[in-house]
Amino acid sequence: MRKSLVALLFAAAVPTLAFAMPGGMHDGHHGGKNAPHMFQDLDLTKEQQREMRKLMGEQMRQRQQITQRYLDKLPEAERKAMQNDLDASREKAHQSMRALLKPEQHKAFDEGMKKMEEKRAERAEFLKWKADRDQKN
């Protein structure tokens, strides 16, 4: 069951990485078009692009909610072990990505990773605050 949950979390995290990576879903560097790469050949209008992003964002949120429902059923020790595995996997992926870069690209990559970690920490803090508030109500 633990491996299934890790796989489920990984699948839920992949769209997040697509948004966060340079050349990801929101930077607009796709052959001069503002559409995500997978829709590049569709020649979407600006309105279609906005709606696609909206639908993809909703799908990502729904997947995260489903994943969270199953995570909430795990004992604390299993959640902690899973988080440790995810952290180690993320760190390994970051190191592999960094190894592909030229030395002059390392600084920008490291800064991007630092910003992502800051956002992750802010999000965790917000979720903790929200959970505490919901418990009090």
From TrEMBL:
Keywords: Periplasm, Signal
Signal sequence annotation: 1-20
InterPro entries: Cpx_auxiliary_protein, LTXXQ
Record-linked Pfam families: LTXXQ
Residue segments, region Disordered: 74-137
Transit peptide recorded as keyword: no
Localization of this protein: Periplasm
GO molecular function (one): unfolded protein binding
Keyword Cytoplasm among record annotations: no
PANTHER family: PERIPLASMIC CHAPERONE SPY
Family note: Belongs to the CpxP/Spy family.
Protein name in the entry: P pilus assembly/Cpx signaling pathway, periplasmic inhibitor/zinc-resistance associated protein
Organism in which the protein naturally occurs: Stutzerimonas kunmingensis
